[in-house]
Amino acid sequence: MDRPFLLLSLWLSLAACGARIHSSELATTPDSVFFKAVQYRLSMLDSSRLIDPDTLENENARLAEALARYKENIFKMADSLDFDWLYIAKSADDRLCLVSWDTRRGGTEVIYETLALFKGTDGSIFSKVVSDTTDEGDNSTMHYDTVYTVRDGDKTFYLAQGFGQGSTALPWQEVRVLALKGSDLVEPAFFPDRKSTVFVEFDTHQFGEEDRIPTIKVREGGRRILVPVATEEEGFGGKYRQLVWSGSTYVAAP
């Protein structure tokens, strides 16, 4: 097996270290109707990729619609990190849930799509596709494994930690700021340079066989974030930059 691919596979498996529900287990739960509906839509994605890739955009839209229909079921489920099914990550306050899946639209770059399910002030559940905040594409391209709930006085926002794959040798990761505003989900620009995301890319060719790819670390309930710094060659020299919550934004700290 190619060493960069082996390193990337190991990194992705280490990143997905939270609770895990397998699709086979869900088939025996009361949510089996939901399970079957999602499995059908995922099978349609696989068929479209092989037979008619031009239909993938519509098939992914149909999957998003199916997930939105079963939003109550999803909120009751445990988090999931099942690559063959769905990534599901919920906030501790049970008001935000991110559901990610492989759209089958990429090659060595895996293009994920994420549907956010969130509760309004009256408890109603709304849905919204999480979009790329750059001009490079329409999807977030990440799957989100963890949602951190950050509270500061009467202010609450969320940090979504995501992972992706630019190619077999280019693991991606990010932390994205999300917040609820009435019946809408917004992305406050809390990070330096008025950004709502922190993004890191490494090149596994720059790592030894025993080296682990460092990940972004969220500490102190989201008030401190340690971001590994990539070298010019996209390796890792052991340095992290620290972002600390100031009460209104994240600021760089020594």
Provide an overview of this structure.
By secondary structure, the chain is an alpha+beta fold. The protein has one domain (3-206). The chain is 22% helix and 37% strand. It is built from five helices and 14 strands. The protein has helices at residues 3-15, 23-26, 32-51, 56-69, 71-76, and strands spanning 80-81, 87-90, 96-102, 112-119, 125-130, 143-152, 155-167, 170-181, 184-186, 197-201, 217-219, 224-230, 236-245, 250-253. The strands form three sheets. Strands 1-2-3-4-5 form a five-stranded antiparallel β-sheet. Strands 6, 7, 8, 9 and 10 form a five-stranded antiparallel β-sheet that branches. Helix 3 (32-51) runs antiparallel to helix 4 (56-69). The longest helix is centred in the first third of the chain and has 20 residues, at 32-51. Residues 10-30 have low confidence and may be disordered.
